[in-house]
Design brief:
The chain has helices at residues 32-46, 58-70, 86-90, 99-112, 121-128, 143-150, 180-189, and strands at 52-56, 74-78, 83-84, 119-120, 133-139, 158-163. 38% of the residues lie in helices and 14% in strands. The longest helix is centred in the N-terminal third of the chain and has 15 residues, at 32-46.
Length: 191
């Protein structure tokens, strides 16, 4: 079986503001809380007893932060950006080989987001007392993806899966039944 034949409801979110879900999903109101409230109401209306979240890159940020805050049972993230917070970037090498893409986005986010909307997934997980099982895949060949993945190192709820053989940000570029995502849906979500 697969996810769509497992008797589940699937909700797909899109962050049109392109702020790593730190401003919420504007369709549901301004901010994270209206988005979380909408999801809670939808869960209740549908009679959902379990919540799993999944995302890649910025979607991984949302999957982790929203999943933890909503009490998701399982959270799956691929190359998530685990921090949108000045102290995280100031403590890292902004001249690393793949920094241009990250510095450009970080500067844009500083203009678009209030400091109160900045986040660090590590802080979110630690402060929540979450019991969610969180699995994070990241490529080690890109400095920033490695930094974002390793940002969650040592948290008991988090299982980090480093991919030494992949040197691109998107781990979901594979196709077919043997892709990382397809395998994880079978072995992590549906297990």
């Amino acid at each position: 079986g697969d996810l769509f034949h497992a008797g589940v409801h699937v909700l797909v979110l899109n962050d049109n503001a392109r702020c790593f879900y730190g401003k919420g999903v504007e369709l549901f109101g301004a901010g994270v809380d209206p988005t979380l409230n909408f999801i809670r109401q939808l869960q209740t209306a549908l009679g959902c007893t379990k919540l799993y979240t999944c995302g890649s890159s910025a979607g991984g940020s949302g999957a982790i932060t929203y999943g933890v805050k909503l009490g998701a049972e399982k959270i799956l993230a691929f190359s998530p950006v685990t921090a949108v917070k000045a102290s995280f970037y100031e403590a890292r090498d902004l001249k690393a080989p793949d920094s241009e893409r990250v510095v450009k986005r970080w500067r844009r986010l500083q203009r678009l987001m209030k400091p109160s909307e900045h986040f660090d997934c590590r802080d979110v997980i630690q402060s929540s007392g979450a019991t969610s099982r969180i699995r994070v895949h990241y490529p080690t060949g890109l400095y920033w993806d490695r930094m974002w993945g390793e940002n969650l190192q040592g948290l008991p709820q988090v299982e980090l899966i480093a991919h030494d053989d992949i040197a691109e940000h998107s781990l979901l570029n594979e196709a077919g039944e043997q892709s990382i995502a397809a395998a994880e849906i079978q072995t992590f979500f549906l297990a």
